């Protein structure tokens, strides 16, 4: 190839490049035409982004709230199932309540396990037996820590591995607690 041929090819490429540029700019050959056409699209994209960000944050908040509601619903459902099971067995004449290991240390009240179950529904005439499965001594004393014992029942000290029994003859709600470990409290509803 001669230098003249090379020069001809360079000129041809330059002409093609100019023609492509002319076509891309809408025929005017002025790059500002492209900016004028693209600017509104960019502005719209920015506006959409500004509107989407609060919506995304709201969705995050709603997701968090939904998870909390789901957990509360799960807890309520578990309690409902427990009540239904207790009511489904009205012929039971004896119910057991455990004083779990670790009740002598604070924290059991946060999960409702100082007495297990912490809430019991029974019928008149049912006998409740509390068993101390903790290494420390406890009491089962009717009443509450604010108002003190109401003298409906009181176990005295229940040593580790020992039990206390009380028969409920009257309808009502009976709160009780441990005089030694006052965070340990529960209730029995007699129907």
Summarize the structure.
With 191 residues, the protein is an alpha/beta fold. Helix content is 41%, strand content 23%. The protein has a five-stranded mixed β-sheet with strand order 2-8-7-4-5. A three-stranded mixed β-sheet has the order 1-3-6, with no helix packed on it.
What does the model show?
- It is a single chain.
- With 191 residues, the chain is α/β, with parallel strands linked by helices.
- It has two domains: 3-53, no CATH class; 91-190, Immunoglobulin-like.
- The protein has two helices and eight strands, in the order ααββββββββ.
- The chain has helices spanning 3-24, 32-88, and strands spanning 94-99, 119-122, 127-132, 141-144, 148-154, 163-167, 172-177, 185-190.
- The strands form two sheets. It has a five-stranded mixed beta sheet with strand order 2-8-7-4-5.
- The protein starts with a helix and ends with a strand.
- The mean pLDDT is 84.
Task: Quote the average pLDDT.
Answer: 84
**Count of separate DSSP helical elements:** 2
Question: What is the H/E order?
Answer: HHEEEEEEEE
How many E-type strands? 8
Category from helices, strands and their pairing: alpha/beta
CA-based shape: rod-shaped
Beta-strand percent range: 15-25%
CATH topology title of the largest domain: Immunoglobulin-like
Q: Could you give me the name of the CATH homologous superfamily of the largest domain?
A: Cupredoxins -  blue copper proteins
């Amino acid at each position: 190839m001669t230098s003249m041929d090379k020069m001809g090819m360079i000129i041809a490429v330059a002409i093609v490049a100019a023609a492509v540029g002319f076509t891309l700019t809408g025929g005017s050959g002025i790059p500002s035409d492209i900016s004028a056409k693209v600017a509104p699209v960019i502005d719209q994209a920015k506006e959409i982004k500004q509107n989407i960000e609060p919506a995304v944050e709201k969705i995050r908040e709603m997701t968090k709230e939904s998870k909390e509601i789901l957990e509360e619903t799960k807890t309520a459902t578990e309690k409902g199932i427990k009540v239904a099971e207790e009511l489904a067995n009205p012929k039971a004449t004896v119910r057991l309540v455990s004083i779990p290991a670790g009740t002598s240390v604070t924290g059991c009240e946060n999960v409702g396990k100082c007495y297990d179950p912490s809430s019991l529904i029974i019928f008149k005439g049912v006998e409740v037996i509390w068993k101390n499965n903790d290494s420390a001594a406890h009491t089962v004393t009717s009443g509450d820590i604010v108002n003190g014992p109401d003298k409906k029942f009181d176990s005295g000290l229940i040593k580790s591995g020992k039990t206390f029994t009380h028969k409920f003859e009257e309808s009502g709600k009976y709160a009780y607690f441990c005089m030694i470990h006052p965070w340990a409290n529960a209730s029995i509803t007699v129907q």
